[in-house]
Amino acid sequence: MKNVKRFITLSLLCISITLSAYDAVGHRIVADIAYHNLTTKARKQLDKILGKQGIIYASTWADEVRSDKKYAYSYQWHYQNLSDKMNVNDMKMLLVNSKLEGEHLFFAIDTLSQRLNKDRSDVEALKFLVHFVADLHQPMHLGRKEDLGGNKVETKWFGKTINLHSLWDSYMLDNKQMSYSEYSIYLQDKFEPQNTDFKRYTMLQSVEASYAVRNLIYNYDSADTNNYHYVYFFSGKLDELLYRGGMQLANVLNAIYK
Known about the structure:
The protein contains 13 helices and 2 strands, in the order H-H-H-H-H-H-H-H-E-E-H-H-H-H-H. By secondary structure, the chain is mainly alpha-helical.
């Protein structure tokens, strides 16, 4: 019995490692962009709760606690399995009825937002929410159920065999060769002319944007092993999703801490 329990524990740990979100750099980029777009009032309140710029340093917490059995319930909050060929009404239905297909990413964002609206000092809910809004903008977190959001899809990355999920978690970000702060500044400069537009985007529009990139990833010609072409094709889309994630997180937090 002990061996069985040990096997189950190790299996769950392996799954939790493969089903990660944007790596630490990605989450800090999203949180940093959000921090710079908070209202003065929201920023002061968040700094008081988490420490100065605390949302940046706490942005990876939800991944870190997955090794703690106490937070096992949150594992499935990191992703939302979406089927192919969904339209905007399908996605809106899932957002509005967030438990329709189980307690996943949409449920987590909705529930945690409600918790914070009731208690703005709920540190746990805040740290979770900061993380999951970023997860929403990692397109493979809206992936297919049958391949675990690309975890079962192998691909070659400059001679190394990896899976599609980790490509978007880490390798695309690593290719930029920038720290989170450098990348954040770059994105804020790049998208500054559209800053006002991004502030108007809704959560549904974020889902649409992330889902559109998700479909491009799945439909990309797998016979094309030119990774430089892959970077060229998707780099701008990655930039936009990261910036969109930061702006959407700022919108959510500004609404809660108004």
